[in-house]
Amino acid sequence: AMGMLLAYELEKGTERELKDLAAALGHQVKMVSSSNYGDPLGYVAGITGFKKSGIRDTEGKLGSEMLVFCGLDREAMDLLLAGLRERKLQIPLKAVITPHNIQWTSRMLYQELKKEHETMTAMKKSPL
Question: Per residue in 41-97, pLDDT tens?
């Protein structure tokens, strides 16, 4: 099944490579603009039944590249992640749209992922 990749604040080179990879695997890439940071992920991903929130997100850039996967099964995910590794595309903040987060805004997801990422990085650094 064709998946949708929501991409945030990618550098030009990364954007080109990602679009290449996605096309090769039959997925779509949507570069999400900051004007949509206040809308539910479901709406941003174009899922039927989700509406624009009308909330203006005025906080500006997220401050980091982020990638959100929608509608990819396990196998498609594995292929895509392998492709990212092969092309040395390091986008540290990655998430899958789930029933749990589909109502969240991009900003909420970003803040959540950033927290998790910082916790994991801290855990890796701390001697056990």
Answer: 999 999 999 999 988 888 989 989 999 999 999 999 999 999 999 999 999 899 999
d(CA 116, CA 7): 19
Structure tokens given for 81: 């992640």
Please state the pTM of the whole predicted model. 0.92
CA distances to 19, 96, 106, 114 from 58, rounded to whole Å, are 28, 25, 13, 19
Q: Are 97 and 45 in contact (CB under 8 A)?
A: yes
Q: Are 5 and 25 in contact (CB under 8 A)?
A: no
Dist. CA 122–CA 125, nearest whole Å: 5
Count CB atoms within 10 A of the CB of residue 93: 19
Q: Which two tokens stand for residue 5?
A: 């990749």
Phi and psi dihedrals of 9, rounded to 5?
55, 40
Segments of the chain assigned E as strands: 4-8, 28-31, 66-70, 93-96
